[in-house]
Amino acid sequence: MTEELGYEQARDQLIEVVRELEAGGLSLEQSLALWEKGEHLAKLCERHLDGARERIEDALKSVEETDGDEG
């Protein structure tokens, strides 16, 4: 299942979906299925990035609080 994919795996699959769509030659049903897969992968990548951003912000807050206690 794609929910278990890491960021890099999801990104790589999304790149492949885009390549297939750009290459053309697909039926409407195939194109729609690929588009839906791409949408799902893009959202998964976004969730991974949001989680990473949150971790960075938490780490920065922790550093700022530590720096403030030393003054």
Automatic annotation (TrEMBL):
It comes from Amycolatopsis deserti. Its EC number is 3.1.11.6. Belongs to the XseB family. This is Exodeoxyribonuclease 7 small subunit. Bidirectionally degrades single-stranded DNA into large acid-insoluble oligonucleotides, which are then degraded further into small acid-soluble oligonucleotides. SUPFAM superfamilies: XseB-like. Keywords: Cytoplasm, Exonuclease, Hydrolase, Nuclease. PANTHER family: EXODEOXYRIBONUCLEASE 7 SMALL SUBUNIT (PTHR34137). Pfam families: Exonuc_VII_S. It is found in: Cytoplasm. InterPro entries: Exonuc_VII_S, Exonuc_VII_ssu_sf. Its main location: cytoplasm. It catalyses: Exonucleolytic cleavage in either 5'- to 3'- or 3'- to 5'-direction to yield nucleoside 5'-phosphates. It comes from the Bacteria. Heterooligomer composed of large and small subunits.
